[in-house]
């Protein structure tokens, strides 16, 4: 029982709790849809097109002996220096009253051996298959007849490539024809000039 005067008791101090900082909830992690594979396929398709090129050469000779030659090609750059491709061959030959049509195809490979100025020294190899018409005398040697045969002609040699732009170029080739058939239409050396143009810039 208290003995002091009324109101002499000290109040009991009760500390107030400190306010706690509010914790913001972390936003949920959003995952992007997997769209890399179609994009990767598209990039690979673009790279393939960028390495394709086309071109070829055209030969014209008129007079008593007429020769019109078309040699279109489709090539692919395997590396910056190595390329390979396929091509078609068509020749129209007129010798006096006789006209002949030759046609066929070829495969080729080229490598840029060393750079020279704005171009490069080339090593070239190809195999051409040609169905050609030719003239011959009959057994009594009284008439000129015409027949057709197929020749396979391996050719190899060197050349020079003059770069026109990053992808376009002009080629001048000096080739040796390893087929010595008497009706072979090519005499050694075989000289070819052609242009290479890219499908894309």
What does this structure look like?
- This protein has one domain: Porin, CATH 2.40.160.20.
- It is mainly beta and 201 residues long.
- The protein has one helix spanning 36-51, and strands spanning 52-61, 65-77, 82-95, 98-116, 119-137, 144-163, 169-177, 190-198.
- 8% of the residues lie in helices and 56% in strands.
Please summarize what this structure is:
The chain is mostly beta strands and 201 residues long. Helix content is 8%, strand content 56%.
| Arrangement of strands in the largest sheet | 1-2-3-4-5-6-7-8
- Into how many domains do the coordinates divide? 1
What is the number of strand segments? 8
Question: Which range does the strand content fall in?
Answer: over 45%
- Major sheet: size, sense and barrel closure? 8 strands, antiparallel, barrel
CATH architecture: Beta Barrel
CATH topology: Porin
CATH level 1 class label:
Mainly Beta
